[in-house]
């Protein structure tokens, strides 16, 4: 059974980074963008990183320009934006595509391991996201495609996907899942 340790990603400087270097640590992986309605989530995610990094949590971000062209700059510009505007200390890697034929293999794996569970129709933000996706990228409404920026995947200490979080999921739910994972270790 594959794990995230089977994949390599690129740093913003183009250097290859094998994910097996994160072995034994829980990891939160997310696709990001600097010009997105969800971009302020960097604040909350950075707080989660500060809270749990000493306990082993790693967070890694992958800028993506597939959603409304909300990450138009270079790898270095995306990384700098996160650090300067949100004080992000966790690693931001090179830009990737997360859907379609050019999707990075890591994200193909993540989507298969944690399929899309549907939009929470009782949440107004989820309803709005569904409308936005149906208007701007209707091909991603079906199947396990990542629906928008700031989709997150929680990985356990063995490199297996534990859970997928949609951009509209509360940071409290993400934080609670991380706490549970750390207590199981």
Number of discrete domains: 1
* Low-confidence segments: none
* Relative helix content: 25-40%
List SSEs in N-to-C order. EEEHEHHHEEH
Please, what is the CATH homologous superfamily?
A: Glutaredoxin
Mean pLDDT: 93
Please state the CA-atom Rg, rounded to the nearest Å. 15 Å
In the CATH hierarchy, the third-tier topology is known as: Glutaredoxin
Number of H- or I-type helical stretches? 5
Q: Which structural category do the helix and sheet elements fall into?
A: alpha+beta
Number of E strands: 6
Neighbour order of strands in the largest sheet:
4-3-5-6
Structure description:
With 185 residues, the protein is α+β, with helices and mostly antiparallel strands. The chain is built from five helices and six strands; from the N terminus they run βββαβαααββα. A hairpin with a 5-residue loop joins strand 5 and strand 6 (161-165). The radius of gyration is 15 Å and the shape is globular. GO terms for molecular function: peroxidase activity.
Summarize this entry quickly.
The protein is an alpha+beta fold and 185 residues long. The chain has five helices and six strands.
Features:
6 strands, alpha+beta, 185 residues, Glutaredoxin
Fold topology:
Blueprint: E1 8-10, E2 16-18, E3 27-32, H1 41-52, E4 58-63, H2 75-86, H3 105-113, H4 124-136, E5 152-155, E6 161-165, H5 171-184
Parallel strand pairs: 3-4
Antiparallel strand pairs: 1-2, 3-5, 5-6
Helix pairs in contact: 1-5
């Amino acid at each position: 059974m594959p794990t995230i340790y089977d994949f390599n990603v690129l740093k913003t400087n183009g250097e290859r980074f094998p994910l097996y270097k994160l072995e034994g640590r829980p990891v939160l992986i997310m696709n990001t963008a600097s010009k997105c309605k969800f971009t302020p989530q960097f604040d909350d995610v950075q707080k989660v990183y500060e809270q749990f990094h000493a306990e082993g949590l790693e967070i890694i971000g992958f800028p993506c320009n597939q959603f409304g062209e909300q990450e138009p700059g270079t790898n270095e510009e995306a990384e700098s934006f996160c650090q300067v505007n949100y004080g992000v200390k966790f690693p931001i890697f090179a830009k990737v595509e997360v859907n379609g034929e050019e999707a990075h293999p890591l994200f193909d794996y993540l989507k298969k391991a944690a399929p899309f569970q549907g939009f929470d129709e009782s949440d107004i933000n989820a309803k709005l996201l569904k409308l936005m996706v149906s208007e701007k990228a209707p091909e991603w409404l079906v199947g396990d495609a990542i629906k928008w920026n700031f989709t997150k995947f929680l990985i356990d200490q063995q490199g297996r996907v534990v859970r997928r979080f949609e951009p509209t999921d509360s940071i409290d739910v993400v934080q609670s899942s991380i706490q549970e994972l750390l207590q199981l270790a």
